[in-house]
Write a structure and sequence with these properties.
The complex is a heterodimer of chains A (167) and B (344). By secondary structure, chain A is of the alpha+beta class. Chain A has a domain at 62-166: Alpha-Beta Plaits (2-Layer Sandwich), CATH 3.30.70. Chain A has helices at 18-22, 24-37, 79-83, 125-129, 155-158, 163-166, and strands at residues 62-64, 89-95, 108-116, 135-137, 152-153. The radius of gyration of chain A is 27 Å and the shape is elongated. By secondary structure, chain B is mostly helical. Chain B has one domain (2-343). Chain B has helices at residues 5-40, 56-66, 77-93, 121-142, 146-177, 182-191, 195-198, 200-213, 225-228, 238-263, 279-305, 313-343; strands spanning 103-106, 109-112. Chain B has a two-stranded antiparallel ribbon. In chain B, strand 1 (103-106) and strand 2 (109-112) form a beta hairpin. In chain B, helix 5 (146-177) runs parallel beside helix 12 (313-343), helix 8 (200-213) packs antiparallel against helix 12 (313-343) and helix 10 crosses helix 11 (279-305). Chain B is globular, with a radius of gyration of 21 Å. The chains are: A alpha+beta (167), B mainly alpha (344). The interface between A and B is medium-sized, with 14 and 14 residues.
């Protein structure tokens, strides 16, 4: 049979010769291998002091984005919730009232927007589904929490601060 | 005859020192083990508690003392407590006959750095070490758990099998040295060559058996976690478990010191008498030499542990009875022939 890859190796089933049956040469060889590892570069990342570099496509915690005037982009269309395979996203829509034009970009907005980070699988489908470019995934981890309800992220956790309010 | 107070005081001090040193070395073996494990696995190992993680053993010890202590309701309470105590006691006892150094001269007093220079030193060590298995057996039996019992039985039969080969490998050495006193064995090596030169095969056998006696990998069958759920200390928690593990480290320290003493010159080091230094300095250098040798062996124990996989039980028995014992007999034969050839 032809090998499918070039990685397969023939198994040697010939009986062991005297030196092989002594085992000691093999043991010393093994000791040599492990001894070399004493001087190898360590793979450890000392976490709180050192942080690992993420790849540019890393998908971490979500944010809800605003437009250039600081208005919320999300219109609570629900496409992200539909796209979410883990069903982690829930939302409630509300209608924009008179005088709230500087807060919300469209007439409809999300009064409540929640992502359950325990369900989220960080697939990034919400980001792709969003027609308003409102939801993005950042490069941060979901921090640890003592209670399960602490992992349900609401709008106050997700919405990025208003760029105008900061200035 | 009155009691010589100075003598008693000297011995008490010496005993305390040997005990303290064994305990501290055992403590830092746990740290060293984790460090070596880390290095071999391309990690750093403990480095959070104190500089280089040096306070780690204290933290571990503190944790063990404050953990909940559980005695199974169907266990024999007395024996359950006796098990780890015995393991600890026998581990600490063996240090008494090892010559930790030559003679220190303080004022006009000669202080031998050996708690007891008895003329049956090696026999004493063998006796005490084989008692050590009672800790394991009683611990495994008293737990009233069939897995612990199985592990204890394994431990007992392992120790019996390897004690035989160990004793026989030593007999060849005793034929050469003509003495059972460890002090004299060291003194002989101080003048001549180290015994490893005459007894390479004997040393190899002794080394393998020492691994098995200390229940160190690859011979750690009494604590096989994957087939026995943990081994003889399965039901133990908190410091009672700690004592079992601690006893193992003390045993490792003592057997390392013993190997250094028997085969690698003990506190003797090359050219120690030609340096022209005063007696006390040579003695202190000798202690340093002994500890360096001992630490090298301890490192070797750890190195092997993170290299070789555990034996299967039948392989262990086969190695002990069918390989080590015949080889030890052969070694005796060769040594006997060598002695006869030298005499003629």
């Amino acid at each position: 049979m032809e090998a499918l890859t070039n990685r397969s190796q023939a198994v040697d089933r010939s009986p062991m010769n005297f030196w092989e049956r002594l085992y000691l040469p093999a043991i010393f060889k093994g000791l040599g291998i492990t001894f070399k590892h004493l001087f190898r570069k360590k793979a450890t990342v000392r976490f709180p002091e050192e942080k690992r570099q993420f790849s540019p496509v890393f998908r971490g915690l979500h944010i809800l984005n605003r437009d250039e005037e600081g208005r919320e982009r999300c219109t609570a269309c629900g496409l992200c919730a539909v796209a979410c395979p883990a069903e982690a996203i829930t939302m409630e829509a509300a209608e924009r009232k008179e005088g709230e034009e500087n807060l919300y970009r469209e007439e409809k907005y999300a009064a409540r927007y929640e992502i359950n980070m325990l369900r989220c699988i960080f697939c990034g489908f919400c980001e792709e589904a969003c027609p308003k470019e409102a939801i993005y995934m950042t490069e941060t981890f979901a921090p640890a929490n003592y209670q399960r309800k602490g992992f349900i992220y609401g709008k106050d956790d997700l919405l990025i601060p208003d760029p105008k309010a900061k200035a | 005859m009155g009691i010589d107070l100075v003598f008693v005081l000297e011995k008490i001090l010496l005993i305390s020192a040997v005990l303290a040193v064994s305990l501290v070395v055992a403590m830092y073996c746990t740290w060293g083990e984790r460090k070596v494990a880390g290095w071999i696995q391309d990690r750093i190992g403990p480095d959070r508690a104190g500089p280089l993680g040096l306070l780690q053993p204290l933290a571990d010890g503190g944790k063990l003392f404050f953990k909940e202590e559980i005695i199974p309701s169907n266990a024999n309470r007395f024996l359950f407590v006796l098990g780890p105590s015995l393991a600890m006691l026998t581990a600490c006892m063996t240090g008494a006959v090892i010559p930790w150094g030559d003679v220190l001269t303080i004022g006009d007093m000669q202080v031998s750095l050996q708690v007891a220079d008895i003329n049956v030193g090696i026999l004493y060590i063998f006796g005490v070490v084989s008692l050590g298995v009672y800790g394991i057996m009683i611990g495994g039996w008293a737990s009233n758990n069939k897995f612990s019992l199985l592990a204890a039985v394994r431990g007992a039969s392992q120790i019996i099998s390897y004690e035989l080969a160990m004793g026989m490998s030593l007999i060849a050495l005793l034929m050469l040295t003509q003495t059972l006193s460890l002090k004299e064995i060291v003194e002989q090596q101080r003048e001549g060559y180290w015994n490893i030169v005459y007894q390479p095969l004997g040393f190899l056998l002794f080394l393998i058996c020492a691994f098995a006696e200390c229940n160190r990998a690859p011979f750690d069958l009494p604590e096989a976690e994957n087939e026995l759920n943990g081994g003889y200390h399965l039901e133990y928690s908190s410091m009672k478990l700690g004592f079992f593990l601690f006893a193992e480290y003390i045993n490792m320290f003592i057997s390392s010191a013993l190997m250094a003493t028997l085969y690698f010159g003990g506190y003797a080091f090359p050219f120690m008498d030609e340096l022209g230094l005063s007696g006390n300095v040579v003695t202190i250098l000798g202690i340093v030499a002994l500890f360096l040798k001992t630490f090298a062996f301890i490192f070797f124990f750890m190195w092997v542990r993170w290299t070789l996989p555990r034996f299967r039980y039948d392989q262990l028995m086969k190695l002990g009875w069918k390989v080590l014992i015949p080889l030890a007999l052969l070694n005796m034969l060769l040594t006997g022939g060598f002695i006869l050839w030298q005499q003629s």
